[in-house]
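Input record (one chain):
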Amino acid sequence: MKVVIASHNRGKLGEFSALLAPLGLTLSDPGSLGIPAPQEDRTTFVENALDKARYVARASGLPALADDSGLVVPALGGAPGIRSARYAGENASDAENNALLIENLSRFEQPEAHYYCALVFVRAHDDPAPVIATGLWRGAIIAAPRGVHGFGYDPHFLVPEFNRTAAELTPDRKNRLSHRARALADLVAGLRESGDLPRRARPAAGA
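The corresponding structure, as predicted from the sequence alone:
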């Protein structure tokens, strides 16, 4: 089955490619098809993911898989939340987003946080029964960045059970633990149940 991954984020595309490799899907991305990024103006991760999946499915004529994910910090009322990629502005870099996050958390010491991911699969733009799954990865925020892997807020996202940031984990380990991996495991189960994937298909190990 050919599927378009509805993302222009190279980091996300790399993670999806690794996680979906065992499923026998033929993957492409909107950029390679000349499809521009859609607006993200909803108030929840699930709504944004559904909009993106429908938009890319309509533009490509193919099934689409979209995610909307981000960092949720309860001490900041849930921010950065759905604005995680543009926390410091519409075209903000990871460094700018991280700097603003740490500035806004300066009065807290290692506040709790979690990454959240909503995944939506649609067979066509007007699919009446999209497959929806979510995943959550708990951690804490540290002021000083650590690690060279990952992207986004990973250098500041401490995984307590390993006492390492997400950026200090190898890509393979992160892909076994992350919010995206957890959501994908639920999504694959839903696709098997609906018959869109054969029951022998399996997500990446530990996902």
